[in-house]
Write a structure and sequence with these properties.
This protein is of the alpha+beta class and 212 residues long. The protein contains nine helices and nine strands.
Length: 212
Amino acid sequence: MNWTKALTDQARQNCFVRTDDLAKKYGLGEPVIRNALRRYESQGLIERIASKIYINHFNQQFSPRDLASALRRRSYISLESALVDRGITSQNPSSLLCVTPDYPRVFESKSVTIVYRRISADLYWGYEEQSTRYNKYFIAEPEKALLDWIYLNRQEGLPTALDELHLEFLSLPKLREYALRFPGTVNHVVKDLLLESAFPSKGRESQRRVNV
């Protein structure tokens, strides 16, 4: 079996490979395939990210977003990752941040870290489909990404520093409407944000109370 050719062929179709797909295609057991891939992993040509999924560096078009839905089918990119994508903040996180109504988990390899934080199933909405060259993924609408961020920060008792956000990239009516579907603590933060937008001096006073 010429695995260099097999991985090169796979790279023309996608930037990651699944051992179960390879097993089906070549009629081999997954343990056999994992053993064969170890040598390529040691050379940095592939990279294990999950039990059945390897990043295929024979394809140089890889983006962490290619894996977002492959690692967690029910998930979407949100929080700071979506806020940066939408231009709302410039604070780019070192990991790709996603939310899921399923179990939270961190998937990590040498070149990428993808974090899935758990959100209530009632709050699993407000996202849209986008595509990389090879795969589809979901990403939060800008207003939903901000609300997810506020919600999860409040859940963990963290401050919500809103003063560096670029509100011109948000629909404030939609933010107000979406906030009504979140717990009251999130609603209070949004009201302060909207107050800051309309009356900066009053909003700053409210913001100090939020961050205490």
